[in-house]
Amino acid sequence: MKHLDPSTPNASKVMEILLRFERETLAPYELPANRLSRDMYDNLPLPWTIPTPVTAFPKKLFVKHEYDREGVLSNGKTFFGGGSETTLDNLENWMETAGMVTRWKEANPELVGTDKDVVKKFVKELKEVMGPEQEKFSTGSGIAILLFKKAN
After folding, report:
1. Distance CA 4, CA 1 (A)
2. Do 14 and 8 contact (CB within 8 A), yes or no?
3. What is the distance between the alpha carbons of residues 26 and 41, in angstroms, rounded to a whole number?
4. What mean pLDDT is reported for the chain?
5. What pairs with residue 62 in β-bridges?
6. What is the pTM of this model?
7. 52 alpha-carbon distance from chain centroid
8. Least confident residue range of 4-8, 20-24, 121-125
9. Which of 36, 61, 85, 117 is the most exposed place for a label (fewest CB within 10 A)?
10. Phi, psi (5° rounding) for residue 67?
11. CB contact at 8 A, 142 and 65
């Protein structure tokens, strides 16, 4: 999930729309892998939590670093690893190919391309909140880095 740079006009309202789109509208079309990465691997089975634990990778030698969870900038200034600037048109094009959207299209072929198309409704709502003059905005992602050290 991309998050909005907090300096974007109406950032909290825009982020609310983004989250609702992903977590409510598209939720029925989500696969477990989508949720796993979105939740920054909180529920990833780890070597010591699986039915047959892998003792070569003990929990005490594991470190997880998180940055910008839920779009809250860890350093208060910029996204870890940098952000990127995009436009609503680019966002719409990107969303058209997202896995959850593709599955929505397969389930709702009669709505694709109409005023009830999930992506068209989403972009229209964003345009209304962002205003006609706000075409560009910056985004970034939450990042989780999992470090495993093998025991000697």
Report:
1. 10
2. yes
3. 20
4. 91
5. 148
6. 0.79
7. 31
8. 4-8
9. 85
10. -135, 135
11. no
pLDDT score at 1: 62
Question: Burial code of 67-85, b = ≥16 C-beta within 10 A, e = fewer?
Answer: bbeebebeeeeebbeebee
7-25 pLDDT, tens digit each: 887 888 988 998 899 999 9
Report d(CA 44, CA 47) in Å as an integer. Answer: 10
What distance in Å separates the CA atoms of residue 4 and residue 88, rounded to the nearest whole number?
Answer: 12
Query: Which residue do the tokens 């977590």 mark?
Result: 23
Number of domains in the chain: 1
Q: What is the pLDDT of residues 18-60, one digit of tens each?
A: 889 999 999 999 999 888 988 999 999 999 999 999 999 999 9
